[in-house]
Amino acid sequence: MYTLNIFYTKHEHYNAIIMTLKLFTILAFGIGLSFTSILKFALADSTNPLVASIGSKLYGLTAGEWTAKWWQWALSIPKSNSPFSDKTGQNCGLNQNGPVWFLAGTTGGSQERTCTIPAGKAILFPIVNNECSTAEYPADKTESALRSCATGFIDHTTTLQTSVDGINLNNLKQYRIQSPLFNFIFPKDNIYGVAPGPTQAVSDGYWILLQPLSPGKHNIHFNGAVVDFTTTSTINFAEDTMYHLTIT
Questions:
Q1: C-alpha closest to that of 220 among 97, 92, 94
Q2: 5-40 pLDDT per residue, tens
Q3: The domain containing residue 12 runs over which residues?
Q4: d(CA 247, CA 92)
Q5: How far apart are CA 50 and CA 210, in angstroms?
């Protein structure tokens, strides 16, 4: 009987060790998932905690690469459904996929839109931005020429304002982001009125990449202006966009 008690004691001790190891594995896995989720925005900007640092990679891409994807999304949509000219927000879900949801401004002027976004999506939008492509500017055949074209406009930015749920974001000039050279295809009836087909482009601008917002109602408001005060310049642009979001 004494020997049998020792056997059961050892057996129970062994089972306890196995259960402890299993529990540790489950907890470690769960913590790992949470850590991975948090890590995506662990390098959030210290000035604006809702905003990702432009120096960190997010979901495997740099901030510049995400802006290129934004342009590929925005310019692939025909003029009739363009997110730039959307008056209500009814088209905000067009061609959206992946971990980052794209919001558009306007091609000038003000607009108020309503949009529903799935929970867990980061949100990318420009305060002001510009792209130059070989389709629009055939004389600009090199990346450096396209980059000079894009930055030449943004260099004259005079106004940058953004708020989330009524709270202003600060030091917005730190969010200037240039894209790498990227490819996209202009569709028929595109918003720029150029010939449809493949092209290459470079973008520059001031961008905000927000971490996923909590479920519920949120407001995002952004406006910017680009003005060259020289007497010979034709650069004079201003836009103001308000989004009423529902995160579900």
A1: 92
A2: 333 344 444 444 344 434 433 333 333 333 334 344
A3: 1-39
A4: 13
A5: 6
pTM confidence score: 0.82
Residue 201: Cβ within 10 Å count: 27
Is residue 144 within 8 A of residue 152, CB to CB? The reply is no
pLDDT at 44: 64
CB 82 within 8 A of CB 73: no
Tell me the backbone φ, ψ of residue 101, rounded to 5 degrees. Answer: -95, 135
**Does any domain span residue 51?**
no
Tokens of 148: 């000079």
Position 43 scores a pLDDT of: 58
Burial class for 133, CB neighbours closer than 10 Å (0-12, 13-18, 19+): buried
64-85 b/e (C-beta count within 10 Å ≥ 16 → b): bbbbbbbbbbbbebeeeebbbe
Q: Which amino acid is at 30?
A: G
Q: Alpha carbon of 46 to those of 33, 43, 132, 166, 214: distances in Å? A: 24, 8, 32, 19, 20
Number of neighbouring beta carbons within 10 Å of residue 113: 21
- Cα–Cα distance between 141 and 29 in angstroms, integer? 50
DSSP-assigned letters across all residues of 210-224: EPPPPSEEEEEEEEE
Q: How many CB atoms lie within 10 A of CB 148?
A: 14
Specify whether 79 is located in the same domain as 116: yes
Same domain? 122 vs 171? yes
Q: What's the pLDDT score for residue 16?
A: 43
Q: What's the pLDDT score for residue 56?
A: 83
Secondary structure (3-state) at 172: helix
- For the chain, residues with pLDDT lower than 70 are 1-45, 231
